[in-house]
Design a protein that fits this description.
Blueprint: E1 12-17, E2 23-29, H1 34-55, H2 63-82, H3 87-90, H4 106-137
Antiparallel strand pairs: 1-2
Helix pairs in contact: 1-2
């Protein structure tokens, strides 16, 4: 048997629940991974452009064809964001372009919830890192 090196991945599993707190699925990712932070910015920009495209319906395609095509793009973007096949879990309850009571598209709602998780985790870890840096550099500031 080979020697092993154990690494800390930072992976966290999040339950996707509805407003009744019923479990809809789970996704696992590292919210403080700098790669996910970078991909997150790319995906937001790309999906904002996609939303504009959705608003300007193509005359050459039926609404159904256009939505199916756009759905597939959203699935790809979410899978890219997480580096894993999560679109099946996230969009199993409704399609990305479903309009919520608030008027927001479902994929936007999900992306906002994910953004909040990534931001909160990044802020928490940044504070920890600054605290450690301050501890080690404090002697140079006296």
């Amino acid at each position: 048997m080979n020697e092993q090196i154990t690494i800390t991945s930072g992976l966290k599993t999040y339950d996707l629940v509805n407003e009744k707190k019923e479990l809809l699925g789970q996704i696992t990712f590292n919210p403080s991974d700098m790669n996910i932070v970078n991909r997150h910015q790319e995906v937001i920009k790309s999906l904002n452009e996609l939303k504009k495209e959705f608003s300007n319906k193509s005359e050459n395609k039926s609404t159904y064809e256009q939505i199916e095509e756009l759905d597939n793009i959203v699935y790809e973007k979410f899978d890219y964001l997480f580096g894993a096949k999560v679109s099946d879990v996230i969009f199993s309850i409704m399609g990305p372009f479903s309009v919520l009571e608030s008027g927001q598209l479902f994929f936007e709602h999900v992306l906002n919830a994910i953004s909040a998780v990534i931001e909160a985790d990044a802020n928490k870890k940044a504070k920890k890192a600054l605290s450690k840096i301050k501890k080690y550099t404090q002697k140079y500031h006296n």
